[in-house]
Design a protein that fits this description.
191 residues; mainly alpha; 5 helices
Length: 191
């Protein structure tokens, strides 16, 4: 096996690992945005339904109660604040992007895993397939970099990838077996 084939296989494995890490970052983000959007939906539907139900059950006199009106006011303020936050921070768009990015990066990781062993004895279209995959990976990386991934997110994603691919961290020389935070700034600093 030539040095070029070794380096190509290693590059494919490294890219599979990196794509997996990025997918885990955006998978977690998608979950967080989904939770926020669910709470927004619960407030938007639940609050009016509860107080409307109370008014129907106990009559409109319940709305003359100061405590009930105070609770309604607080719930309304919270609902408005969350709705404004959702609009300003583009929760729905960020949720959709995070889902797409996670899916795309998982797919890229899988495709790099398939190509890595093929580099030892490359099939006829290997270089063409690799070039197409590298182009897709660079494009996705550019899009993902615009989403301001934090150092903690990178550390968590890196730990996921090390664990998935059974690799040892280059800094702490540990092979992660769980997702518990550690003191390692590279693979465990995500408390």
């Amino acid at each position: 096996m030539s040095t070029t084939q070794n380096s190509t296989a290693q590059d494919c494995w490294n890219r599979a690992c990196d794509c997996f890490a990025t997918a885990k970052i955006f998978e977690k983000r998608a979950l967080e945005y989904r939770k926020k959007l669910n709470w927004l939906s619960y407030l938007g539907i639940g609050v009016p339904a509860v107080f409307g139900g109370m008014a129907l059950a106990w009559g409109k006199g319940v709305l003359d109660n100061r405590i009930v009106m105070f609770v309604i006011a607080i719930a309304g303020i919270v609902q408005i604040a969350m709705s404004v936050a959702a609009l300003i921070h583009h929760w729905a768009e960020e949720h959709a992007y995070s889902n797409r990015s996670a899916s795309t990066n998982f797919q890229l990781s899988d495709e790099f895993k398939i190509l890595a062993p093929q580099s030892v004895s490359p099939p006829p279209n290997f270089q063409h397939d690799l070039d197409k995959l590298l182009t897709r990976d660079r494009s996705q990386t550019t899009l993902d970099n615009e989403k301001h991934v934090t150092d903690q997110e990178k550390s968590r994603g890196h730990r996921h990838a090390l664990r998935q691919f059974q690799r040892t961290c280059a800094v702490c020389n540990q092979k992660p077996t769980d997702m518990n935070p550690t003191n390692c700034k590279t693979c465990g600093d995500f408390k």
